[in-house]
Design a protein that fits this description.
five-stranded parallel beta sheet, 66% helix, Rossmann fold, 17 helices, Serine Threonine Protein Phosphatase 5, Tetratricopeptide repeat, 7% strand, 336 residues, alpha/beta
Length: 336
């Protein structure tokens, strides 16, 4: 049996013990425990593990939060990571998939289920991160850090013979961008996003390559995709910077004002949100979505009269606007 080490993360001591016992019953003796995501992150800074199995709901940092932190660190992009919960809703499954989860395990733990999940994990590890791939990748990154772009490019392109990887294609795209080979860079970034639909850095870099080629429409669309992913991952600063960059190139892009308004409203900066929505209305005064979002903002401000007026305006522009109808009904019935 392959010797594997596990980091088990759960604030429920009984659940931790059951999972640890199950792993040890299957022959895996190296099992470390952590009580929450923050503690697990601290442990991972000290030593490496072959797999993390974490509860979804925990204080301080959730399992999903820990997964996002790890996937945003190049060292842990391929680390097998399982989330556990008593029940997985469709929304949770989607969120976990977008964050890069390896698999989901339902509580209470069944030994047979654990065995199958680990076998799947072992197959993934054998295919994706053997030494003959991992070591050249690290060497390629070292060459890249030292500015030896041609050597790094050769190393990454050679690695594709061992199997495709979104991160490899991203680095190839980055190098080609530095060299001014924008068409080749875009091709590499596209391959990266095809392998990982939520690879925000690749979309962002692709948008900049389009921008360098003077293709502003393609640049705006790709950068917007990156911003949307950053927002879904709660990386608001990165999203805000990209959205404002798009507006600098094309101030008539209405959906950017709308997205910035949503971002500021979530942040609680209502005046900044309203300013963005109004800028959008100056360009397209007949956009129902903007009036609807202004209405939602006034709901947050407890100004229900203004909220209802904007919902009605949205509905007058789009009689089939279901959300606007529901918002008006909620106000009239005193639900908000």
């Amino acid at each position: 049996m392959t010797k594997l080490s596990f980091l088990v993360v759960d604030n429920n001591s009984i659940a931790v013990r059951e999972l640890s016992d199950g792993l040890q019953y299957l022959g895996y003796k190296e099992v470390q425990e952590a009580r929450n995501g923050s503690e697990a992150w601290s442990v991972l800074k000290i030593r490496n593990y072959d797999c993390v199995i974490s509860a979804w709901d925990m204080p301080e940092m959730s399992g999903l939060g820990l997964l996002k932190v790890l996937r945003n660190d190049d060292r842990y992009i391929n680390l097998p990571f399982f989330l556990t919960d008593h029940a997985f809703t469709q929304a949770k499954v989607i969120d976990a998939g977008r964050a890069g989860v390896t698999g989901l395990i339902v509580k209470p733990f069944q030994v047979d289920t654990l065995k199958k999940k680990i076998e799947t994990m072992s197959q993934i590890m054998e295919i994706c991160v053997p030494d003959e791939v991992r070591l050249p990748f690290l060497e390629g990154m070292k060459l890249l850090e030292n500015g030896k772009y041609e050597d790094a490019l050769d190393r990454f392109e050679q690695m594709l013979d061992q199997g495709e990887s979104a991160e490899i294609y991203y680095n190839i795209g980055y190098i080609k961008t530095v060299k001014g080979e924008y068409a080749g860079a875009i091709e590499a970034f596209r391959k990266a996003t095809k392998l990982d639909r939520y690879f925000a850095k690749a979309y962002e870099a692709m948008g900049r390559a389009f921008k360098a080629m003077g293709k502003t429409k393609e640049s705006a669309a790709t950068l917007k995709k990156a911003a949307d992913i950053y927002m879904s991952d709660e990386k608001e600063e990165q999203a805000e910077g990209i959205l404002n960059e798009i507006l600098e190139e094309n101030p008539d892009t209405i959906n950017i004002y709308n997205t910035l308004g949503v971002l500021y409203r979530k942040r609680g900066d209502y005046q900044a949100a309203l300013d963005q929505y109004r800028k959008g209305l100056k360009i397209h005064p007949d956009q129902p979505k903007l009036y609807y979002n202004i209405g939602r903002l006034h709901v947050d401000l407890k100004d229900l009269e203004q909220a209802k007026a904007n919902f009605n305006k949205a509905l007058s522009l789009d009689p089939d606007f279901a959300e606007a109808k529901e918002a008006i009904e909620a106000i009239e019935l005193g639900r908000v």
